[in-house]
Amino acid sequence: MNSPLSTPVTPAEAWQRLREGNDRFVSGSSQHPNQDAPRRSSLVNQQNPFAVIFGCSDSRLAAEIIFDLGLGDAFVVRTAGQVTDDAVLGSLEYSVGVLGVPLIVVLGHDSCGAVTATKESVDTGSMPAGHVRTLVERITPSVLAAKRNGLSEVNDMVVEHTRQTAERLVEDSRLISDAVASGSAAVVGLSYHLAEGRAELVSSIGNLSTGAGEPAAS
Asked: 58, 127, 130, 139: least CB-packed within 10 angstroms?
């Protein structure tokens, strides 16, 4: 079915739309919006996504499904362990600077294999071979930070890594930083719970207020 909702234009509106979609997914009442032939045809020459979702590549973390989205709703970037590099930053800057997306989502999840591998490497002092080593090296600061805070469970480390990744996006990109400072964009970190299907807010950078003095998320 096609969604009658207008495209969110503020960070708060975009966040509210994602929350509503995730609520539907959790309750088993997904609407599967914007997945029909007219929607497909309308997007041939243009796109106007309302969020960019930067998440882990895990097969259980399909962004359009867990937020009940359709064609043209989200600009999606995925790497194992939501690890950033120049290509990721360029993709996120394109979504904000060219497409005008008002919300960047950093999406981690329970039992992340990349974070688990990093924890094992930190615990044993043994690094994996090949390019997996690069993933581990980039996640290691988050694992060490979690350990310094007395956290030893992988899922707690996932939350720390999600928070740190969101912060680094703003620190490493002048374009994203300026968009957040101007109020035209915001960055949220979400931790997805595999069993429940819930995407929990763990960090936010920027203005997510509704404009009526109430927060868009608790």
From this structure: 130
